[in-house]
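queue> holo job accepted (2-acetamido-2-deoxy-beta-D-glucopyranose)
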Amino acid sequence: MNYLLFFLLVTVTICQDEYGCEDCECPDLFDKYDSLVGDKSSVLYTKEAGCVYNITCMTSIPYHWTLVMFHFNDSEIPLPDNAFDYALARASNIEAPIDLIVNIFEFFGMVCENSEWYFTKYPHGISYRNSTGEYIIGADGELDGKKSKIDEFYCTPLSK
Ligand SMILES: *[C@@H]1O[C@H](CO)[C@@H](O)[C@H](O)[C@H]1NC(C)=O
Ligand SMILES: *[C@@H]1O[C@H](CO)[C@@H](O)[C@H](O)[C@H]1NC(C)=O
Ligand SMILES: *[C@@H]1O[C@H](CO)[C@@H](O)[C@H](O)[C@H]1NC(C)=O
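queue> job finished
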């Protein structure tokens, strides 16, 4: 075995196990939780090593409230013509809702970068508004890979 690689692996392992290198540079993700809509203490979640969470939510019931909000000015997704600046990504397809249990951290591809929380997956696209109404784009996941800063998120807890 290459000794340098071996040394590196040992260092990384020790670092994760014993010296607290698993701390995440981002603030608590739940600082972004929209507590106007519901109580975060009813949400089932775990914080794992590094910047990884497991957040268990229902997708559709009651009002498609499991979602992430963002602003186009903080996103790689271009602002549609005449759209208002904010938009949201839902965990459900509002045209054909199915109530599933998902880990929204993984579902929305949430990541910590430069001490900011972003998300990178839009399995049911995004919903934005203009003065005429609400519209959905990217419903087949074609926006996946674009980064948006998380403004707020909300999770419908299992008990609802
Ligand atoms: C996430 O948490 C849920 C609920 O506790 C659990 O069922 C699931 O196995 C966990 N997933 C992972 C990847 O740890
Ligand atoms: C984007 O707009 C929001 C709301 O107006 C604002 O809070 C945020 O600072 C803006 N971000 C940038 C990069 O201008
Ligand atoms: C709002 O967006 C829709 C969908 O792109 C478009 O058809 C409509 O003309 C827009 N309304 C305004 C006022 O631009």
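queue> The CA atoms of residues 75 and 148 lie 4 Å apart.
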